[in-house]
Amino acid sequence: MVSEVEKLGRVSLIDLADSTGVDLYHVEKQAEYAVADNPGLMLIQGEIISQHYWDSVAEEINERLQECSQISLAELATQLHVGVELLTSILKPRLGTMVKGRLEGGQLYTPAYVARVSAMVRGAARGITVPTNLSALWSSLQHLLQEMDGASGIAVEGSFFQALFNGQVKEGQLLGSLRAGVYWTPTVFAGAQKECIDSFFSQNSFINYEMLNKLGISQPVQFLQSRYPDGLALVNAFAHPSLTEMVNAAVEDAIERGSWIDSLSVLPTSFGSQDASKILSHCQSLQSALKSQKAFIFGDSYVFSHTFVKDVYDRIEKEMESFNVSGSTGMGLSDDISSRNNDRVSHDSSTSVEANDSPSESSGKHAMEKGSRKKRGKASGNTKTVIVEGTSDNQDYVPAKSKKNQKKSKDTSSLHVSEVKSGARKDPRSQEESLNVPSEEWVVQQIMTLFPDWEEQGIDDPHTILRPLANHLRPMLINSLKEKRKALLTENADKMKRILDDLQRKVDEAFLNLQLYEKALELFDDDQSTSVVLHRHLLRTSAAYIADTLFINLDIYNKVKSGLEVENSQNSELVSLSPGERIDLAKTFRGSMSKKALAVAEVLEGKRIETFMVALRDFAEESGIVLKKLDKKLERTLLHSYRKDLMSQVSAETDPVSLLPKVVSLLYIQFHNKALQAPGRAISVAVLRLKDKLDESAYKILTDYQAATVTLLALVSAATGDEQDCSSDRITTKREFLEGLMPQLKGIVLTPSQP
């Protein structure tokens, strides 16, 4: 077996079994012994191969390699019917001796071919001046070799190029840095890159990261920090310490001058607000000023001195006084109404049809006031008015209700309170609006008005600086406003109590009079047209007075409680509101109180006094005002006082027109025990109903006087133009006639001789 192998160099075990005539089993067993004893033999895949065989194969491969310049190991392994790994292990020890070539990437190359490709790699790499991915370079070289070698050329693997390249880098033939094995940065580029960066940074004291990205530096922050350890890494750029010192000096100067500065104005235009904020955080003088509250930073880049901010605050605080008045809902309404109605007071006393319709009402009013004063202690004893201070300084007036009314409205009031609290939690902005505090927009507008030169100082959008400043000032302004209101509320506590006491007194007297007048309307229930006239007259006079008194005084109370200065008119009792003014004032109240006030204002334009009574009681209950009920005893007292006052007025009356209503009212007290308030249109019906109560002579005097009064008023009303001289004579005659009847008319009521 050994001699056969030495003769042939490579023999199959099957062939050895045939040539020796021995069974294959014994041949395989002996082959193992033979290979183990002879190092020059090897048993591979059922074949015994000698080293002489491999030497001859190596010589053949070398001859072929010299002819082709490159051979694929895979092709050789296929031809020799062995594995590529085995062939590689056989050829490696013989490279450079028996095989004149280089093994790389499964290919055998001749030294000339390697030198040729190595020269191509060196030339291509030296031609690169910018960072390059070597994979793209190897692809270009492969394409070039295929064009040079033609169809017979074998494709060269990129690893062969990479190995040649790495060798040249180690030998110093190529200068540069290799990153991640494939990213090549030539030394010439790195030098130019660093030179460019150094030049820009030294000239400008900063450099943008975008510029480094364009230069091929993917991690600019780390690169710059390693190159300039003293620099400051910002969001968009890298700054030299001198830039921080420059900003620090500018800020320090602004603080000393009591002014402000935008740090971006002294920084390069490429810097953003975040860059400025970071530089400001490294300014030592600014940080010291911030700790001592000598300066403030608004909007990342704006630095304000404490002196400037205080000046702005002081000037806006002065404007808050006008804001406090002009910003209040309904402010000035009652004052304007009072001034208008005060001018109207003197005019109302002139001789007119409406003024003379109800002179008995004014006399009756004074009588009722006198009568009510006698019972004042008792009437006011059940009135318990409590001033409730709410959590906010300017909540509308909601006085405590009487014990009787508290029981009725307990559920409603608790529900209202819970709604107010929950509403305040859910919507803080609406709560601020209800507190009447300056809004952010108002503060910004005031700053713009007081300091109009923001745009002149190079600020494109002033709101970018004004809003942070306004947000800083607004809480202080609100606190100042609240303190002032709290102080005013304390000062006005006595004034509020006087307002409520005075209001309760007025309502007590007026409502008792209204109930007294209402009882007289029962006498005319059988006459629908007259009843409507009387009801409307009572609504326009006594009822309107009560509603106006409540509206005006509660409005004054709310304003005083809100800390607002309000002039309380001395003639408030003479103030009367028009329907439009009454509705506008009712709308200024809050919540259900406003709805019930509007209901009162609406029923005043109705036809029945009972409807007004219902609406008035609801509104009074909501506002905490007690309405005193007229009992029999108090009614007798008021009627007696009313009658006594009317008699004194009749006795002293010198105006013939004003005398008639007073006489009629006095007669109704004498015969019906009722206090009648009758307008001019209802006097004739009222006189007619006295026919059965008076004797014929007295009734005739009354009717003649009433007819003459109507005629006189008609003449006065018609006296215009050219007919004025003629009418004047007739008016004088008619007036003299009435003056002659006055003693007889007075005698009817002043002489108690009637049955």
UniProtKB/TrEMBL annotation:
Domain called E3 UFM1-protein ligase 1-like: residue spans: 500-630
Polar residues compositional bias, start-end: 348-362
Compositional bias per record (Basic and acidic residues), positions renumbered to this chain: 337-347, 408-432
InterPro entries hit by this protein: Ufl1 (IPR018611), Ufl1-like_C (IPR056761), Ufl1_dom (IPR056580), Ufl1_N (IPR056579)
Keywords: Coiled coil, Ligase, Transferase, Ubl conjugation pathway
UniProt superkingdom: Eukaryota
Domain E3 UFM1-protein ligase-like C-terminal: 635-747
GO MF annotations in UniProt: ligase activity; UFM1 ligase activity
Coiled-coil stretches noted in the UniProt entry, renumbered to this chain: 478-520
Sequence segments annotated as region (Disordered): 325-438
Domain E3 UFM1-protein ligase 1-like N-terminal: 3-224
One GO cellular component, as annotated: endoplasmic reticulum membrane
One Gene Ontology biological process: response to endoplasmic reticulum stress
Family the entry assigns: Belongs to the UFL1 family.
Record's protein name: E3 UFM1-protein ligase 1 homolog isoform X3
Lineage start: Eukaryota, Viridiplantae, Streptophyta, Embryophyta, Tracheophyta
Gene, per the UniProt record: LOC116211888
